[in-house]
Structure formats: C-alpha cells, structure tokens
Design goal:
Layout: H1 2-34, E1 36-37, H2 39-42, E2 44-51, H3 61-77, E3 84-88, E4 92-98, H4 103-111, E5 116-120, E6 125-128, E7 132-139, E8 146-152, H5 154-172, E9 180-184, E10 187-190, E11 202-206, H6 212-224, E12 231-239, H7 241-294, E13 298-299, H8 301-330, H9 335-367, H10 371-401
Parallel strand pairs: 1-13
Antiparallel strand pairs: 2-4, 2-12, 3-4, 5-6, 5-9, 7-8, 8-11, 9-10
Helix pairs in contact: 1-7, 3-6, 7-8, 7-10, 8-9, 8-10, 9-10
Family: Belongs to the SecD/SecF family. SecD subfamily.
Protein name: Protein translocase subunit SecD
Transmembrane segments: 6-28, 254-272, 279-295, 346-368, 374-398
C-alpha cells in the first residue's frame, strides 16, 4: 500500500512538473511575440511638446486636455498603432511613436497649429475649422491634381450657405467682391470666386499641393482640429530600429542570464525546494506576461528592469520560506509540519517587505511619468504574481514532493541528519 501510494504521488508530481514545463515552453514565445514593444526596444520617434502661453491667455488644464485629444487624433491619422501620449508637468506632452521612421513628417503633423479660416474680401471670418465635420484628400478627375474636399457640420453648413448667398446677391447688385479666401494658420491657400450659393455645406481646396500625400496630410490635420494653444517642439529624437533591436536582444540576454543564475543558485543552496522554486518561477513569468498582454501594455527597458527586480523579490520570498522550513526541521518537526509552519511564519515577513516595495512603486507611479510609471507598474504586477506563486503554488508543489517517500531524505532540503533531534529522525 505504501509503495502504491508512493508511486501514485510520484506519478502525480511528474505530471504536474511536465505540465508546467510544457506550459512554459509553449506559451512563452507566443506571449513575447504578442507583446507591444516601446520606443527604446522597437525604435521610432520621441517628441516633447510644450504648450505656450500668450499675453492674452495662460495655458490651463483644460487647454492641456484638449491639446492631448487633438494630438491623439493627429497621431491616429499617421496610422501609428498604440502611440504613447501623456502629460509631463503642467504644460508638456510626451509623444512616443514606436515603429515610425519619419520624424520630420511626425513633427510637421504634430506641431502645426492647423487653424483653418474662410474669410471674405473685407477680412471677416465666416467659417473656421471648428465648423468642419470632415476633410478628405482626393484627385480631381479632370485636372488630375490633388485637392481637399471639406464637409461642414450643421452650424457651419448654415453659415456657409448664408455667406455664399449674400455674396451672390451682392454681386448681382454690382459689388465685385465675391471671393471667399481660405487661410491655414494665416497663410492663404486659395481665393476662389463664389458663383452660386452653396447650401450643401461642402467646399474644395484646390491648387498649391505638390503631391497627393501633402494634401492627405493637410486633410488629416484639419480632421484632427486646430491646436487650442500654440505649441513648441522642445525636444525630438529618433531611435533607429537597429538600436531598438540591439536593446531588445541585450534585454533578452539579461533576462535569460538572470533567470538561469537564479535557478542555479536556488538549486545549489536549497536543493529540492530550490528546484520547486524554479518551477514556480516559470508560472510566475507566464502570469506576469499574460497580464501585461491582457492589459495591452507596452514593454520598455525600464519595464523589463521592473520585471527583473520583481523576480528577485519572488526569489527572496522563497528564500525566507525555505530558511524557516530548515529551522523547523532542525527543531524536530516532521516535513509536512515544517512546511506548513515555515509558510505560516514567513508570510508576515514576506507581506511586509512586498508591501513597502509596492508603496514605493505607487509613489513612483503617481509622481513620475513616462517610463518611470512603466517601471512602477511592472514592479507592482511582478510582486503580486510572486506573492501568489510563493505562497500558493510553491506550497502546493512541496506537498506533492513530500508525497514521494524517496524525497524524505533531509539532505534534499539542506538539513544534515545530525542537526535533527534523535527522537524526530525518520518521521515525515
């Protein structure tokens, strides 16, 4: 019976270990491939924009909210998947476009005010960009030249119909002024005649476009809307894909080397429990990567640093537990009782140390910005995962291990036989 029970325990342990290995091997690569990489790992464009106050208007929080919205709309027009746009301080925006390789075009799109105005011959602004509903770049079928078709919203349609009707009526009475000039950021784009009233709420910008792409970029700016305040680009830099790939390769090497060294340390110092901890770390890694993937997080170098630090925290938890386990064994407790007591006594210490680290991470998150926040998030996430694996999974695996009689030898747990009270020797 004992032999059958031991064989059953060994079979169950082998099945669980193989399942963990298979899950780690099968899921790690797909999760890594599915992760979104940040600017420092993938390459791209980094821009720091600062809102400018004027004598008439100081930059407000509402201006920054509107500015962030407009910037996001503009970046979306570039076709960038998941850009990073976030505030820094009271009047700055950080814009990171991972995978984008045209910094000049990005700066041109982001920094242009794009204030569209329709003015009569006497300079009166009759319709502006805020009255615009849509703007599209097209090719004129007759001239084969690029142009932009504009569509106004309900209010803009009404105003445009009224002014065009007024101009047509004035011309019929002998007034030669029947132009509506189209200005972008106070620069004249075109100055067409008004031959008839336009009640449809549509207009066309023709001429002056060197290419279709130029017209498309301008249409994108108009769709995104004008900037609520003037903006100055105070920093811009491009991270080449080669540099990003090199950073990614070095990060992978550092992660693999770090995990291998940790696994060897745990195996050499704590033997069988160390091997159990190594299997727990596999599940820990899958949990962290899975949550990051589910949250659609962007992985950056500081984020990887946070993950590596949290791996160290996970190992610290196992070290505390195993040292408690050895103390309980030296005090004469059985393996099962020593495991339960070791986890129970180590929990408070583990919780306190992790709680203080999470508190520091929260401070970094709320007071920091950009990659500092990424570091704080991955560190906190890693600590939460390590708490789960160290307290729950490691304990479950150790109970499976002691279910195998061949694994009852105390030297497998880093304790010498002569350190155990004579009365307690040979007990499970």
């Amino acid at each position: 019976m004992a032999g059958g029970k031991g064989a059953g325990g060994f079979f169950k342990l082998v099945v669980v270990m193989i399942a963990i290995l298979a899950l780690g091997i099968g899921a790690f690569q797909p999760l890594m491939r599915a992760m979104k990489l940040g600017l420092d790992l993938r390459g791209g464009v980094y821009i720091l924009a600062q809102a400018q106050s004027t004598p008439e208007h100081a930059v407000t929080n509402e201006d920054m909210v509107a500015l962030e919205r407009v910037m996001r709309d503009r970046v979306d027009q570039l076709g960038i998947a998941e850009p990073v746009i976030q505030r820094e301080g009271s009047d700055r925006l950080i814009i990171q476009l991972a995978g984008y390789d045209n910094p000049e075009e990005a700066v041109k799109m982001i920094g242009k005010t794009a204030q569209l105005e329709f003015r009569t011959s006497d300079g009166q602004v009759v319709v502006s960009g805020k009255d615009l509903k849509d703007a599209k770049a097209v090719i004129d079928q007759q001239t084969r030249e690029p142009e932009i078709t504009l569509k106004f919203n309900a209010e803009g349609t009404k105003k445009f119909a009224e002014i065009t009707q007024k101009l047509v009526s004035s011309y019929s009475r002998g007034d030669p002024r029947r132009h509506i000039a189209i200005y972008l950021d106070n620069q004249l784009l075109t100055n067409p005649h008004v031959d008839e009233a336009i009640p449809s709420g549509e207009a066309v910008i023709r001429g002056g476009f060197a290419s279709f792409q130029e017209a498309a970029n301008l249409a994108a700016l108009l769709r995104g809307g004008a900037l609520p305040v003037p903006v100055q680009i105070i920093e811009r830099r491009a991270v080449g894909p080669t540099l990003g790939a090199d950073s990614l390769a070095k990060s992978k090497t550092a992660i693999i080397a770090g995990l291998v060294l940790i696994a060897l340390f745990m195996l050499v110092v704590y033997r069988l429990p160390g091997l159990v901890a190594d299997f727990s770390l596999i599940i820990y890694g899958l949990i962290v990567l899975g949550v990051l993937w589910a949250l659609k997080a962007t992985l950056t170098l500081p984020g990887i640093a946070g993950l590596l630090l949290s791996v160290g925290m996970a190992v610290d938890a196992n070290v505390i537990i195993y040292e408690r386990l050895k103390e309980e064994l030296r005090n004469g407790k059985t393996l099962r009782a020593a495991i339960d007591a070791g986890f129970k006594q180590a929990f408070t210490t583990i919780f306190d140390s992790n709680a203080t680290t999470v508190l520091a991470a929260l401070v970094l998150y709320f007071l920091g910005s950009g990659t500092v926040r990424g570091f704080a998030i991955t560190l906190s996430l890693g600590i939460a995962a390590s708490m789960f694996t160290a307290i729950t999974l490691t304990r479950f695996l150790l109970h499976l291990v002691i279910g195998v009689p061949a694994f009852h030898k105390l030297w497998l747990y880093g304790v010498k036989e002569e350190q155990i009270p004579v009365a307690a020797r040979g007990e499970i």
